[in-house]
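Weekly structure sync, notes
Attendees: PL (lead), two postdocs, one rotation student
Agenda item 3: pending single-chain targets
PL asked that the sequence for the first pending target be pasted directly into the notes so everyone works from the same version. It is reproduced below exactly as submitted, 145 residues in total.
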Amino acid sequence: MVRPQSIVRYERLYLSSFALGLLASVLTWSARAGALSMNPLLAGKTWLLWMTLALDIVISLLLWRFTARTPSIVAKWIVTVFAVFAAMGILFSIFQLATARIQLGMPVLLMAAVNILYIAAATLLFRRDAVHWFGEIPVGEEPFA
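Predicted structure, written out during the meeting:
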């Protein structure tokens, strides 16, 4: 089956979000390593940062594969749940900015962009042509009628 336009757009937004997320990880690496070393139980265990980054990359690429290349309804809904978490993250950041618990800076703006791109990508999974892509409604039948 030829990939529908919604899936092509989804892939672009998803991979843009992924790339910006990696950039955010690089830019905040030392701050996260410092926060990790402040905890007496986790001091000296920077391998945890590497492991979480590797796990994040593997999960992200698997979700990309099973949504944009090989359609899987399960992957679609996992992406959707993660998009809901991204929306909650944006709301939490706005709350923290409003209550002056954090300052507006590059990491906050970058993560907001990552989350907005991810949410935009996830919404494309529910367009008419994407519904056919995932086999939720057979081709020829009209979804959302």
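Discussion points:
- Helices lie at 5-27, 29-38, 47-69, 73-98, 106-124, 128-133.
- The mean pLDDT is 89.
Action: rotation student to compare against the earlier draft before next sync.
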